Amino acid sequence: LLAPLVMDAVTGVRRSELLGFCWDAVDLDSGTYRVMRKCLVDRHTHRPYLTEDLKTDHAYRSGRLPAAAVRILASYKKYQAEQRLRAGSTWSDHNLLFPGPMGYPLHPDTFSSRLRRFQIRAGLDAVGINSVRHYVATALINGRVPDATIAHIMGHGNSAYTRRQYEDVYEMTNQFAADVLADSVDFLTP
Predict the structure, then answer these.
(1) Long-range interactions of 139-148: CB distance < 8 A, separation 24+
(2) Digit-coded pLDDT (tens) for 23-50
(3) 152, 162 in Cβ contact below 8 A?
(4) Angle at the Cα of 11 (from 7 to 15), degrees rounded to 5?
(5) What whole-number distance in Å separates Cα of residue 148 and Cα of residue 132?
(6) pTM for the full model?
(7) Are strands 26-27 and 32-35 parallel, antiparallel or unpaired?
């Protein structure tokens, strides 16, 4: 589960978008990615499927991957090729980054269950994948990344929406700024 966690931690994509990533949307040579699909579950059959019908027009986006993430994904791609070879003719190639055992789209609930088990085995707090998305937004806000860039990365229509979604984080950074300025006032006054 390292590769999907890393991918989510550097892109901030929604769970459905993470499970919808195909290799044609990730360019390891240039270190870029495009969000262009998601994985949903059919209401009647309960089977996962891919769709290019994303949540909003702004959900279609692209970004850059850090070098460490590219290395992890390259290693994972080799591992996945070995899995495909072992599965032989039973593999159904959907070109997914994070498929189920035989190449089919992975059910989102199965992914979340595996993530929880992985976290417990690793001695980590069990947090949902949406918490990773929140972490990404928080890190970007705390890193003073421009609001418009954060909105793009998160797939939001505008920075005002992003500010509303992460209002608590913005408030914490505003308090931090006030504390820094308070230290300046304390320094200037006897």
Answers:
(1) 140/12, 141/166, 141/169, 141/170, 141/173, 142/169, 142/173
(2) 999 999 999 999 999 999 999 999 999 9
(3) no
(4) 70
(5) 20
(6) 0.85
(7) antiparallel
